Structure formats: C-alpha cells, structure tokens
Amino acid sequence: MNLKHKLLIPLSLFCAAGACIAALWLTGQSKPAPSASAAVHCIGPGKKLEVICRGTEGCKVTLADSDGSPAWTLWPVEDGEYKLDKDLPAGAYSLTLTDSQGQEISAETVTVTDSLLYTEEETYPLRSLSPLYYDPEAVTADGWIAIYHQGDVPGKDMSVVWLNLADQSTPDGMVSMRNMQGQWMLFGSVPGEYTAYLFADNNYQYDYLASWDFSTAEPEGWMLCWLPESGKAGAAQGGITVRSPEETGKVSVYWGCGGEALPDYLPLAELTITEGAAYKQLPESLAIPAGATELLLCSANGKVLANERIPDMLCAKEETPLYSFAVISDTHVTPYPWNARNRQTAAAFADLAAMDLLLTIDNGDVTNNGRPREYALLKGMAQKAGLSPFYLTIGNHDVYKNLGSYTEYRDTFLKAAGRDSVYTELEVEAPATFLLLGSEGAADGQALDSGDSVLHEGQLSWLSAQLEAAPKNEPVFIFHHQPLSDSVSGTLGYSDVIPDSSLHELLDGNPQAFFISGHTHYTLGSEWAAYQYQDGLSVIHDGCVCESYDGEEVRRGSEGLVVEVYEDYLLLRARDFLEGAWMASGFRRLDFRF
Questions:
Q1: How much is the pTM?
Q2: Cα–Cα distance for residue pair 376/359, rounded to 1 Å
Q3: C-alpha angle with apex 313: 180 to 133, nearest 5 degrees?
Q4: What pLDDT, in 10s, does the model give residues 107-153?
C-alpha cells in the first residue's frame, strides 16, 4: 500500500507514548474539525515546544503564561507542525485555539520545567513508556535513575526498576525506561503511580538530585508503542508493540510527518494482530529516514489508527552525502527481450539513471546463462537508460553455474565487462577504494558445485596488498557475488566461497572494509541485510532484481541498494524497483569505525 496520493483528515485525538496528536482518517469527503495540540505536554529547559495544527484555516493559536500574558501567538494558522522559536521560562502555560470570531475551540495545559529529571506526559499507556529526560551535567559517570511506587522511600524501600546512566544514556540526557533493570513484568503490565529519582552517584546514600511523578494506565482503543534501544540520532533499533481492540487483523506501520506517511516510502513493518496485540523487533542497524517525525499505525484500508512521536533528539539529521552509488545483483537477464526478468532489469536501470550516482555495479549473476546475447541485451538496457558508469562482477550463472567450460564463459564475461581480469580496482574520483572480486574457476581440474566461487592465491594476495595500500581514513568497498559465511541473511553456517576461511581471515578485523554481496536473493527487509562485526568488518547484502526471497517463499520482487556516503557513516537506502519507492524496512546505517 502506498499512501502518497491519499488525503489525511483528522478524526479524533489519541494520547500515546509521550505524544497527544490528532488521529487521522483517509478520506476527502469532509472538512476536518479544527485542532491544535502540543506534541508533548512537558518540556525541559532549552527544549522547543512543538504544536500540531489540523483544519485550522482562519484560526488563532495562543500560548499564554499563568498570568494570561501571551508568550506566543500564531495567526493566521495553516495546517502543519510549528516549533516555538524561543525558550520559555519554567511555568505552566495554556495553549488555546480560537476561531475567526474569537470563540474558544480547545485549550490544554503545557508545562515547562526546570527539574533535572522529567517525563513528557503525566500518564502513559502501559507498554508505551516514553523516555526519561535528565540533566547530564548534574551527575557523574556513576549517576543512576530509579523508579519507585509513589510513597516509597529510596534507601528504605525497593525500587521497581533502575538504570546506571553509564550503561544506557545519551549526551542529551535521554534514557529509555524499557532498558531499565528490575521488575519489568510488574512495571510494564500493571497500572500504577510512580516516582522517578535521579541520583548523582552510586554511594547508595540515596540523596537524590531530583524526583518526578508520573503514572501508567491501561490503554484505550488502538495503541502504537515504539521503544527505542539506542539514543543515537537516526537509529530505529527497538521494539514496536501494537495493542488492538480487535482480536485479529493486519496492520502496517509507516514513517510519517505531520500525520501523513512519508511520500515514496513503503511500510516499515506489516503486522498480524493475534489476541489483540502484535510485536516487531527492529534490527540493530535500521535507520530512521530524514524527515520522519513520527510512526503511523494504519489499517488495511488506510485508516490511521494511532501514532507515536519520535523524540527530537532521535530524528535523523538532514545531511547531504559526499557521494552516492548504486549496487544491484542477480538481474539474471535472459536471451528473450520481453521476459519478466529483463523487464524488471530495464525498470531498475531507468529508476537508478534518474538519480545522481557516482557509479552503478551489477554484482554478479548479471545474466542467467552467460551467453553473448544476454550480455548484449543487458548492456543495451543500461545504455538506453543512460546508466553510466556501469560495472559488472561475475557470478555463478555467468559461468553457467560452473557446469560448462569456465574459460569460455569467463572470456565472454570479460569481453562484455570491458576488462581483462575478473578482479580489479575501479578508478573512481571519490575518497574511497572500490575493489571487484570474482571466481577464477576450479583449481587442478576439480569439479565445482553450481554456486561456488573460487578465489586463487594470486587474487587473495592482490586483495591483501590493496587493503594494505588503501588510505586508513577512507572506506574500502569490496564487491563479490557470493557472500561470506555467517554474515548476511541466508549464510548461517554456509558459504559458496572457496576458500571462505582465507577470505574471512583477510577481511576480519579491518574496520575500513565493507564487503557487498548478492547471490541469496533475500529481501533487503530481512533482519541480517547488513551487519557490522565487533572486530571491524561490515557485510552488506545488495538485494535481487529478478525476484525476492523472504525466508519462507520466493515472490515477485525487484530490489537494490543506493549507498550514500557521509563523513562518518554509510546510509544504505533499499529501493523497490517495482513500486518505484524506498523500502523503509531496508534502510541501514553503518558507522565508520576507522
């Protein structure tokens, strides 16, 4: 489902997980009722108040302090999200929406606190707990936070949950309650009234710096909860929980902004409701797209059921990449021009050619049978689309699955690729090294299985020298059709690389190396589409243009990657060529560690 051509109309208000935002209905039949509400109802020092307006044409929004003096006025009001352009002194404020006649439509209270510890809402639905915010300058490295039942005394009574700030916090002073230790089954399942305490250090004298009261309650109606597990801007890792008034059904979660799904983005997750609930764990490296400020929960017919605000400090920053390139694989071009695989390849080429790319690499199994006719069609489609420069690596299908004469098929490939070796370094005007690897056929006349890639000692020595010579402050992109064992999706305990152990040994412990492969046909929305080993190596799956495998069945699909290179990280943007849209489930951020 694609929401980009729909009109979103407010229907009612939901308060969920730290945000009180209008719920929406996909229809164009009636004018929405005017509404203006704060994204959150409590902010700390230096935070900017955000107001969300819907159907407010001709209306006036006023923020007044306790004396009734206007602190901020907005008139006339257009639909959208507004962020206050000045700091507010601590105190209680009234946010009021009036019509063109001066009649009050709605009013709510917003608090600006100078407390060293606070939450954004007074009450949260169970299992949708928003982060706690604290002043990081007020505590030492041994500081900690604990939550008690209201009335219990620190040092005398046991806390319900707690967290050492050195274990999980951010420089901006945000911690996720979900990451706290202790009686989480009780805290997350039973409504209650609580007090959070901020302690300066771990001397266990229980002299606290600040306290803050809040409560939890059973959710009403639909609930969407995202519990982030990282405090890093742009990081989506965490759990999504959906609570439903219905026992069963299917729903989708989208990245959104202003109550609408981000245009040209497919769902982040598609969930099946069972016994009134559903859960989805988001992968470690999953990235939040720039421009997303909330998550939207949508029904099968497009109705927005609930939403969840992304804390400002977690929203992805708007940045311009240093350069971008595309990598696809498994085009499997056949000798029949109107074959579905050829049509999907042509569509992928046209889609990529419209982007500002440094280069494009078709990373193996570029043809289905390694025939000259197939290469001619492949190159013709690339030229027609204007896809240039365009490079190839060799896959097992390009040597007819290793069942025929390797030398004959290799020579056909090299002629089409316009070079004299299956492995080479690309001359690219960018601060990076681009290396193409490829199978050299069986050694000593031995037979090969259909998927194998054999790297001879000369190629491994060449790769070692290239890694040694590469600048130590730049990435090294290594393209090979077959993946390493125990790396990306579909490789647990398995590899078609010979010798896999030698290639692993060369690359392991190299934080500059980004090993990019295809071959498995797994969808880019799979959990292990990209992974960074603790010792430095990063592995990336580049999708499949001719079809897609979700771990259970092969389905019609066409996917590839656009890799954006920034100063400190890579952003892997998964693309669905059939839909002409970005795959939110396939966005990954890999930080540079060199």
A1: 0.80
A2: 20
A3: 45
A4: 999 999 999 999 999 998 876 667 889 998 888 888 899 999 999 99
